[in-house]
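Run folding on both entries below.
>entry_1
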Amino acid sequence: MTGGPHPGGIVATLFAVALVAAAGGAAAEERTLLRLDAALLETLASQRTAWGGTIRPLGGSGGYTIARVSLPAAADIPPHPHPAGKAALVTVLRGSFEVALGGQFDPARLVRIPPGETVMFRVDDPHHFARTGPEGVELLLVAVPPDAVVPELATR
């Protein structure tokens, strides 16, 4: 038989994959799920922002940054940039958050971003500013090199 794999070879390959998966599954069952709950997050190193927020780096290398950001209740966050040369994706985890682009804080321009929604700051976006609600806000920040953003988003 030419032009393709031998049927017996396919069966042997599938059997080998099943054995590896079973072995990996057994090892995985011995581990416990790592949950990044509030108590664990509190133990991580953090940085304070000028406006009373807390940034807890969760990881990053090679131009990537991942952080959990906590902002206080009823705070006006002044205009600021995200890391130079990076696109920033910010997901609202809980709380009230309003944000807009610009170098001047203008409450009339704020747009509400509900929990579960993500906003993206592109590399060439100007500064942005924000306001939190009465319960503050928890955010997940992922900053990436601009070429890491899918083209459908990068060109909007």
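>entry_2
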Amino acid sequence: MVVTMDLQSVLISPKIEASSAFYKMKLQIHNFTIYRLNDKAVNLYVWHEGNGGVTCNEFTSCIVDYISCEEHKSVSHFVFISDGCGYQNRNKVLSSALANLAAEKNITIEQLYLERGHTMMEADSVHATLDQLFKSIEIYAPSDYLVYMRQARPAQRYNVKSVDFNFFGDYEHQPGNLASVRPGKEVGDP
């Protein structure tokens, strides 16, 4: 199974054009997108800043959940393609969790990072579709985003999963985490 994954630009709630609420404090909404290349299925993990941040724990929790779901029980080889963003994809916490999960489930998990400046991938098409949809509508609450996300692609609906602080695990402080994912120790090493 080959997937691309990325975090959408921050969504804001409420998103309205006219009123004093436009200038008041807003809530940030995060959408982590996983796009499966095999059949164009899309999984969206959505949360607001009150339920989680944008640390390696949130992204690791989403990816581990995606691999562990019942639908992927028979998959033995995963390839994850992403940009090289350190706090999302390229860190020892995620690599450690994936290594542990691969050993536990007897599967192969491969991580590929796109070269800086060449990070356009299929998950970005989902974000473009959503951005175009959200441009013309008003959003009053975070739940409004979920409703519109589920309706964004009628032919093959997005699987939208609203997650909260109970969903996110603490992968950063697991015993046995890798010390580093960098193969070299000196300047100039790959």
